[in-house]
Every structure is written in structure tokens, then in C-alpha cells.
Amino acid sequence: MLPPAVAIVAINALKALVESLQADIRNGTLSQDDALDCLGDIDRATAEIAGLQADACRRATTPVYEIH
User: Fold this and answer.
1) Which domain of life is it from (predicted)?
2) Mean pLDDT, to the nearest integer, of 15-44?
């Protein structure tokens, strides 16, 4: 099961990365196209974290004899 603390740490890391990308765009050190590519990767990672968290919640509420 994915502990909630792990999901929180991962999401906070992704948030920090987004903020860093925004600063790089403002400073002109990263093009918008490159930033959009990175944001796409972040979006996919966020969806993966959400899926893992949903799976952990489902497993936590599923009786042991139903888990394969």
C-alpha cells in the first residue's frame, strides 16, 4: 500500500518542479516549448501518483480474501 506521506512528498516535489519551471520561463532560461514538454511529463507523473493512491485506498478497503 502506498502510504499517504509518500504521495504527499511526491506531489510536493512535483509542485516545486512546476514552480521552478515557471521561474525559468520568466527568467528566459527555458523556452515555453521545453517547459510544456516538462509539464506533460509532470502531468503523467501526477496521474500515476493518483492511480497508486487510489489503488492503495481500494486495497485498504478490500477484504484480504479478495486480494489476488
Assistant:
1) Bacteria
2) 85
